[in-house]
Give the backbone structure.
Amino acid sequence: MATVTIDRDHYGQLLLSAGQDHAEATATAIGNGAGGGPGPSFAALVADAFAVDPAAADELADAYRDALRELCGTRGLAVPDDDAMLDGIRRDLRPRRHPGVSLEALVAHLGRERDASRAAAAVEDG
């Protein structure tokens, strides 16, 4: 397999764009009466990001969650909670396609980041 090297800032922009695009697809599906999970391509992408750097998976998940909240809010749709994203990753990730990534480690990591974000928001609000 060939290796491509890109600037970290550029990689961050790719993660941001991917998270926003997946949020758009999810918000559209919710608006059409379908479920609110991120889908298999998001699960694969977040697993690949996690394999490169767990912080990259956080960037992707944060971009997805932030964009989904905004899109659902502007469209008058119920915003799926963070557990919907984690459940979707559990359901949709194909471990044989990501042999170097532990599904449970990935979900646990993203869950910890979610909990840390909630705690920080509570401190800001309180």
Notes: The chain has a mean pLDDT of 88. The radius of gyration is 15 Å. The CA atoms of residues 29 and 35 lie 7 Å apart.
